[in-house]
Amino acid sequence: MNCLISKWLIVMTTVLGMTSVANSADPEKFRVYFGTYSGELSKGIYVSTFDAATGKLSAPELAAEVKNASFLAIHPSRKYLYAVSEIADFEGKKQGGVSAFEIDSATGRLKLLNQQSSGGGGPCHLVTDAQGTNVLVANYGGGSVSVLPILADGRLSPASSTIQHQGSSVDKQRQEGPHAHSINLDPANKFAFAADLGLDKVLVYRFDGSKGLLTANDPPAGVVAPGSGPRHFAFHPSGKYAFVNNEMTSTITSFAYDPAKGSLKEIHTLSTIPEPTPGNSTAETVVHPSGKFVYVSNRGHNSLAIYQCDPATGRLTALGHQSTGGKTPRNFNIDPTGSYVLAANQDTNNVTVLKIDAATGKLSPTGAAIEVGIPVCVKFVPLP
Questions:
Q1: What pLDDT is stored for residue 365 in this prediction?
Q2: Closest C-alpha among 45, 13, 44 to residue 31
Q3: Residues 6+ apart with CB under 8 A from 16
Q4: Is 257 in contact with 206 (CB distance < 8 Å)?
Q5: What pLDDT, on a 0 to 100 scale, did the predictor assign at position 25?
């Protein structure tokens, strides 16, 4: 009888798509890595443990010392972590750096493997491709994007492709030239999207992962209103839509996406703040894993804007705002279970935990928080 029960449980686990013990020691526990700007309270990348069953974070520990590790990316194998060094001088040249780290599966600590030039000054965002063969990086200060091939042992090779953006837009102080603020890939790993604050465009590139090559697409870009300053970009899980927050006008633009052409067509643009807020700017865009909700961080209003997404049209409906429990929420992220938001408040040196209502998308404070010096990026890795 016991044998029959065991076999039945195995079958039901497979049918229902439940996670088996063999696949994960605890599917609700995760390591969380925090990228930071360097200062008196921060020396680099920090790591904590998050329990999605309780919504609690452990006290952070220094995982690796590196200067201005303002954005992080996790390799698909979860063996490696990559970080920008948002600096203007690397190895004596006007460029920033990208560091490759090996993740210690037992402790979460990071071992530096090597560093390479980012191909431009002030790198601020990076991703790995779906195959884990390349890192793509956006250089804000230099206004360029680069591809750095990943070697078999996780180390980085020098850039195999760098594209220098050209042009300007209407704000002569902030948009005097190109400022590549993020780079992302579509679900098929065929097109790359670089939101450039200085150009008011989301530039589109064809991406050849086998060669580590970017080439201009036709059409070449999705366009937002002059003076908007597009910053961070995210795809809907369906792959039909994409969203970009516009830093300078505190807005979010929805796009319809054509995966065959790599083209973006604006659906509409909405405000991210309920009333005019002097000095406010947006930072991060995150889509809930269910695809039902989209969130944007407001620096100044110190909140997350909440939207419901219509899966048939990609149109957003504003649902309200939630304070992040700190000042200047930069990056934030949703845990892999879709239950909580972790918000990095840059100017109050804390990371707070907000509970997500799965039915409404609304957020509520849990009271859980940890102190992290100048936190600006949040990335999850399942515990082994």
A1: 98
A2: 45
A3: none
A4: no
A5: 60
Give the torsion sign (CA, 39, 32, 327, 368): negative
Total count of residues recorded for the chain = 384
At residue 15, the pLDDT reads: 33
Residues 309/296, Cβ–Cβ less than 8 Å: no
HEC per residue, 18-81: CCCCCCCCCCCEEEEEEEECCECCECEEEEEEEECCCCEECCCEEEEECCCECCEEECCCCCEE
Say how many C-beta atoms besides its own lie within 10 A of residue 227's C-beta: 14
User: What is the SS3 assignment for 278?
Assistant: coil
Encoded amino acid at 110, one letter: L
Q: State how far the alpha carbon of 10 is from the alpha carbons of 18, 24, 260, in Å.
A: 10, 15, 40
140: nearest Cα among 159, 163, 124: 124
Distance, CA of 72 to chain centre: 8
3-class SS of residue 15: helix
Share of the chain above pLDDT 90, in %: 91
Question: Residue 123: which of 136, 147, 135, 141 has the closest Cα?
Answer: 141
pTM recorded for the entire structure: 0.93
> Which residue ranges make up each domain of the chain?
279-384
Low-confidence ranges of the chain (pLDDT < 50): 1-24
Prior bond of 289 cis (ω within 30°): no
C-beta separation of 29 from 51 below 8 A: yes
In SS3 terms, 110-164 reads as EEEEEEEECCCCCEEEEEECCCCCEEEEEECCCCEEEEEEECCCCCECCCCEEEE
State the CB neighbour count (10 A cutoff) for residue 128: 21
Determine whether 383 is exposed, middle or buried from the number of CB atoms within 10 Å of its CB (0-12, 13-18, 19+).
middle
Instruction: Count how many Cα atoms sit within 13 Å of the Cα of residue 152 in the half-sphere of its side chain.
Output: 0
What amino acid occupies position 133? T
250: DSSP letter: T
Homologous superfamily of domain range 279-384: TolB, C-terminal domain (2.120.10.30)
Cβ partners under 8 Å of residue 192, min gap 6: 136, 145, 183, 184, 185, 186, 204, 205, 206, 207, 214
Task: Tell me phi and psi for residue 11, to 5 degrees.
Answer: -65, -45
